[in-house]
Amino acid sequence: MIHHAPVSLQRMIEAVEAVHQRLMRAVGALEAGGVPYAVVGGNAVAAWVTRVDRAAVRNTQDVDILLRREDLPRASEALERAGFVPCQVLDVDMFLDGPDARPRDAVHILYAGEKVRSDYGEPSPDVSDSEAGGAFQVVSLDALLKMKLTANRDKDRTHVRDLIDVGLVDATWLDRLPPELAARLQHLLDTPDG
To answer: Which of 27-36, 60-69, 114-123 has the lowest mean pLDDT?
Structure first.
């Protein structure tokens, strides 16, 4: 049986804040080290969604950062100076948030121009396919949509539906996508409630 703590609003707030602090420490370290990067994943979706409707932002447990593979040594040095610990789990490079952290408490690295998984049809974009998002460099909406449609997991489809819901993505995007990704987007446009 799993032991669980009582329901606590404070614990919920602390969990969200821990992800935010991890994100800001990581991007601060990369910027101080002069390492090009872009925030991707759930934090990138939140950054885009909040531009339209702050109330529609969904929390995420992940911190996903896009890097060029050749920049990994400099990124590693910068992140380690900020207290992160390099680690690899199931072929995923990550930086744990301290020596006692778990993989959930980490910065996950994706590589520009490479497929996240060998069976993915599309590689990740370059870090230059991004823009200043206020506090950090965030992947462009076009690149983010392609990444989410390529991954196509439940959470990715939910993130795309969030982008659709606030009006950032609609049927006009279909012509910009490869056929397989366009079909996935059409399905999400046709099934807004899942």
So the answer is: 114-123
The ranges assigned to domains in the chain are: 9-139
Q: By the 8 A CB rule, do 177 and 185 touch?
A: yes
Please choose, from the candidates 94, 109, 88, the residue with its C-alpha nearest in 3D space to the C-alpha of residue 39.
109
């593979």: which residue's tokens? 69
110-113, long-range: CB < 8 A, 24+ apart: 110/40, 110/64, 110/65, 110/66, 110/67, 111/66, 111/67, 111/68, 111/69, 112/66, 112/67, 112/68, 112/69, 113/68
Pick the CATH number of 9-139 from 3.30.2310, 3.40.50, 2.60.120, 3.30.460: 3.30.460
The DSSP code for 113 is: T
For 27, other C-beta atoms within 10 Å of its C-beta total: 24
pLDDT given at position 15: 85
Closest CA to 106 of 191, 22, 14: 22
* Percent of the chain surpassing pLDDT 70: 100
